[in-house]
Design brief:
There is one protein chain. The chain is mostly helical and about 160 residues long. Helices cover about 75% and strands about 0% of the residues. The protein is globular. The termini are far apart.
């Protein structure tokens, strides 16, 4: 009878990384189900099977968690845009593919996209120093959630 080799125990850093990955996956799932406004550390903790106080070992506050999710989404969007434009023969085709990939991503991952865009608006406004948070949220609310097919077609002809 053949015995399986026992897995070596996880290091402290590996356990921490694994737990953080689990928390982020749980938060991502809740974000998609309930949206940005209803995401809370308490709900994420409950769904991840841990205490709310334990969340503070990984994230300073809700905004830190949302920023981490937004950064991951931005990285995924960047990879998607690079793939879409990689072999475009000319600048016009590259621009068309870029726009279509952007729209496709927004439609495929609406909650992720909205969170990433909210973070972009907030950080841009903060760096410009011209808008306060209420103005940013008002501007964000006025942006349509997904572009219509008609508008997308008009820009690709």
């Amino acid at each position: 009878m053949t015995r399986r080799a026992a897995k070596p125990p996880m290091t402290r850093e590996a356990r921490r990384a694994s737990k953080q990955k689990h928390i982020l996956a749980t938060a991502h799932k809740l974000l998609r189900q309930h949206g940005h406004e209803r995401l809370s550390l308490r709900n994420v903790a409950r769904s991840a099977g841990m205490s709310p106080a334990g969340m503070y070992e990984f994230f300073e506050d809700r905004e830190h968690l949302v920023a981490t999710l937004g950064s991951a989404t931005s990285a995924r969007l960047s990879r998607s845009l690079r793939r879409a434009t990689r072999d475009a023969p000319d600048p016009v085709e590259r621009l068309v593919r870029l726009g279509l990939a952007y729209i496709r991503f927004a439609k495929r991952y609406p909650a992720d996209f909205a969170t990433a865009q909210r973070l972009v608006l907030e950080s841009t406004a903060a760096s410009l120093g011209r808008m306060d948070r209420e103005q940013i949220l008002t501007m964000y609310a006025e942006v349509p959630q997904s572009p219509s097919k008609t508008r997308a077609r008009r820009y690709t002809r």
